[in-house]
Amino acid sequence: MHPGTAPQPSQPLHLLQLTDTHLFADPLGEVYGIRTSESLARVLGQALASGPSPDALLLTGDVADDGSEAAYLRVRERLSPLGRPVYCVPGNHDEPRTMARVLGGGGFQVGGQASLGAWTLLLLDSHVPGEPHGRLGEAALARLEADLEAQADRHVLVAVHHPPVPLGSAWIDAMGLEDGEALLERLGRHPRACMVTSGHVHQAFAAPRARLQVFTSPSTCAQFAPGAADFELDVRPPGWRRWTLWPDGRIDTAVHWLDVDERPDRAGPA
Ligand SMILES: [Fe+2]
To answer: Ligand 1: distance of its center to the CA of 154 in Å?
Structure first.
């Protein structure tokens, strides 16, 4: 949080989640016919022109499609002028070491945790080298358990590229988070509000539960068709997710689509 801009704990926190930007070293690089760098610029323009100014940005993986230093540098150049902290987790397309080197420090953070008012943001690494699916592993789960114990009096937002639940889309669920159930089991024990948000699936999804809820955000470029058994592109435009985190554990979150409507998912008690 930048000096002078840190919200007081009694105020809500506004986050802007951008995911699966899939940038390339080549600024004209495309994913399914969409120039990803241009698409990100349009998303940013519309997202910042509407709604409350974000206190922080959250990038939930596949920041680069090609894992190149140039792609991460472009993200830094695009987002640095906003003067807001940018929290990142790697996706399956990312090159975690290059990402951490280019996007570590100077207002950017890859992995670890951050304090956001009454909430703690936990940034988990589910990248498995050379594989589309995700895994946290026993060591990371043990660390998470310790982190949760230390944060027992705080609400928690977990960011992880691969969603920990199946979405009902066979080809996507086949490359999900291998130890998603183990993650949910640990998060389910947390006594305060606990939200999980992911990317990877290039579509909006929400699985509300009593206190532990799982969300995904659409990509800032191409989308996949919800419920499709096999690979299928969706006609929906680039999108993003907004978050409002309240000090008492309530959340408001909504998905927005470029140049079209917004879809509130849920606003309920923790
Ligand atoms: Fe992706």
So the answer is: 30
Centre of ligand 1 from the C-alpha of residue 202, in Å: 6
pLDDT in tens, the chain (270 residues): 444 455 555 789 999 999 999 999 999 999 999 999 999 999 999 999 998 999 999 999 999 999 999 999 999 999 999 999 999 999 999 999 999 999 999 999 999 999 999 999 999 999 999 999 999 999 999 999 999 999 999 999 999 999 999 999 999 999 999 999 999 999 999 999 899 999 999 999 998 766 789 999 999 999 999 999 999 999 999 999 999 999 999 999 999 999 854 444 543 333
CA of 102 to the centre of ligand 1 (A): 20
CA angle 213, 215, 220 (to 5 degrees): 165
For residue 232, being part of any structural domain is answered with yes
- Here the CATH number for the domain that contains residue 77 is 3.60.21.10
* 199 alpha carbon – ligand 1 mean position (Å): 7
Do 94 and 129 contact (CB within 8 A), yes or no? no
Distance, CA 8 to ligand 1 centroid (Å)? 34
Determine contact, residues 75/27, Cβ cutoff 8 Å: no
Q: 């105020």: which residue's tokens?
A: 11
Inside any domain, residue 199: yes
